[in-house]
């Protein structure tokens, strides 16, 4: 067992496989004091950060307040800018979003509250094998190489108040007790705000694709989304590792808020570009599931996060996802003889399961998923 791995007393749970009796976690406070980093965190040459600071990506800035005012010029400008961005690389910024600045501030502060806790306390909410929620530390018990230099805390958000109007608060109360009541309240409010913002963006995407403002808004009304807190400790060898490896988000839409450190990079025209932090703006990008919903018209884009040797970096990522059993299928207006179906129908829960149990999301997730899905369906057909 590598020295940086702390063997913790086994925490038997219902869904651990026989081989998962012991939880192992990455102890950033221990690692930071070593002069080198373990080989498991060293990425192949061709995937390492650029030696020079990459050029800045000029992404359009969407004034959401303007769009929501209904002013015809603002609506057409907004939808045109989003359309061009989504045809080019799938990233754009949203400003004048109406999200309370105090909520943003306390959401960032609450990350320090959690990630500053002793390892054993964070380990109380450890992500279980095959699950997408909980605390994960560089996924040491999930991947054996190209480990990301980060700790994450992921949790579910359900927008369907009939089903669960307080899922985030309950999740933390159940897992961490009364001390996390305020913590849960903060992220319940944050996720509600993110869900509302996502539905406005879905209106813009619907208009930009010619299917109208309601189509995708209604598709995501009762979303089963994922909120993820990314904490990237400083690294003594930032040029050898990555905070988050190159990937396309398998989800539908990502609304990201970076702190002021910087580190998000997007791969466009065969070159890595940086998207510098802007506290007033959310970075929005479409994911694989929305690429399938648009029948491939809009592209899910390759991106990653680099780390530095000086200071921790934090980002809050809200991953909009349809209801688990919702069938992902493009509207008929986006399918034609010239534009035949690019992907088969699938449910979001099947793709999510694929990324959690069978495949580490990267830049080819959707292709790998479609191949896997076809194989599964062929095997079932042969068995009947
Ligand atoms: C559905 C998801 C899987 C990941 C979290 C959400 C959306 C982004 C995915 C991820 C960040 C892509 C890079 C690899 C990954 C393993 C990670 O570094 O965290 C991915 C997440 C995951 O599988 O936990
Ligand atoms: O932290 C960042 O800037 C990006 C993280 C990311 O891409 C993700 O969590 O999917
Ligand atoms: Fe991402």
Automatic annotation (TrEMBL):
Keywords attached to this entry: Iron, Metal-binding, Oxidoreductase
InterPro entries given in the database record: DIOX_N, IPNS-like_FE2OG_OXY, IPNS-like_sf, Iron_ascorbate_oxido_reductase, Oxoglu/Fe-dep_dioxygenase_dom
A biological process term (GO) from this entry: response to molecule of fungal origin
Catalytic activity annotation: gibberellin A12 + 2 2-oxoglutarate + 3 O2 + H(+) = gibberellin A9 + 2 succinate + 3 CO2 + 2 H2O
Domain Fe2OG dioxygenase: 222-322
Molecular functions per Gene Ontology: gibberellin 20-oxidase activity; metal ion binding
Cofactor requirement: L-ascorbate
Pfam families per the UniProt record, alphabetical: 2OG-FeII_Oxy (PF03171), DIOX_N (PF14226)
Pathway, per record: Hormone biosynthesis; Plant hormone biosynthesis; gibberellin biosynthesis
The family this protein is said to belong to: Belongs to the iron/ascorbate-dependent oxidoreductase family. GA20OX subfamily.
Protein name, entry field: Fe2OG dioxygenase domain-containing protein
